Amino acid sequence: MRWILVAILAGFAAYAGWWFVARAERVAAVEAFEAALDEAGVSVDYERITTRGFPSRLDTVVRGLVLDDGGRVWLLPEVEVSALSYRPRELIVTFPPSFTLESAGEAVTVTSERLRMSLSLGRDGTVRRATVEGTGLDADPLGRAARVLVALRWTGGAEYDGYLEVLDGVVGADSLENARIDADLTLAAPIDGMRPLEALPVRSVTIAAGRVSWNGALADIEGTLGAGVTVTGPGAKAVAPFFDAFGG
């Protein structure tokens, strides 16, 4: 019985020790990401940053976060990055129910019922899967939506499967009842999850299947942006200019 107790205690001690190792790695990753932001010309300021969750989780909370790239300012009261201590590269980023974006002297407050991002990183730090999901989104006066889902899945090299879904949306004075788009993306390089994404280095976007309901009229979309996109259906006339603006 004594040996069983010793084994249990030793196992717990080893597990607890692993948490402290994982926490140290998380702290180092946060510092490296902050340095990468600074290198990219983005100033970072925050009131406080803490990492806790012993013994099974790594929950990093940043309070009073301000990101400023010289032209835009992102003001977030709180952001939380969570992971299981034994799966530190499977991250969930939870955004606050309200935050503010400032640009060109104008401010837009974004509110949501829920807004979070999940990331799965490879051993080299590149993004293997990424999902951004929001419900009850409102960015008045730009628009609002009952639900928005954006997903990426790495398929090899610098190629990704992409998916976009919008439900019950409003863009300006127009109604976007729903949109579902499946696409194949080729980038200049795989997305590095440990560095800020200054601009998505897109080489090509091919829409495999897409359907949009715009002001009550349906439109089907298929093709490669910049090389020719086919828009058909009753809503084609209204939807086509949007894709033309992206080189469709």
Which descriptors apply to this entry?
248 residues; 15-stranded antiparallel sheet; 2 helices; disordered N terminus
Poorly predicted runs are 1-20
Helix and strand content put the structural class at alpha+beta
Average pLDDT over all residues: 81
Number of helices: 2
Shape: globular
Number of domains: 2
Query: Span between N and C termini?
Result: 72 Å
Largest sheet: 15 strands, antiparallel
DSSP helix fraction: 10-25%
| Percent of sequence in beta strands | over 45%
3D structure, described in words:
With 248 residues, this protein is of the alpha+beta class. The chain has 2 domains: 1-109, no CATH class; 112-248, no CATH class. Helices cover 19% and strands 56% of the residues. The chain contains 2 helices and 15 strands. It has a 15-stranded antiparallel sheet that branches. β10 and β11 form a beta hairpin. The longest helix has 38 residues, at 2-39. Mean pLDDT is 81; it is low at 1-20.
Q: Can I get a quick summary?
A:
The chain has 248 residues and is α+β, with helices and mostly antiparallel strands. The protein has helices at 2-39, 236-245; strands at residues 43-45, 48-52, 57-68, 72-84, 90-94, 98-103, 106-111, 114-121, 127-139, 143-156, 159-171, 174-187, 202-214, 217-224, 228-232.
Question: Secondary-structure map with pairings?
Answer:
Layout: H1 2-39, E1 43-45, E2 48-52, E3 57-68, E4 72-84, E5 90-94, E6 98-103, E7 106-111, E8 114-121, E9 127-139, E10 143-156, E11 159-171, E12 174-187, E13 202-214, E14 217-224, E15 228-232, H2 236-245
Antiparallel strand pairs: 1-3, 2-3, 3-4, 4-5, 4-6, 5-8, 6-7, 8-9, 9-10, 10-11, 11-12, 12-13, 13-14, 14-15
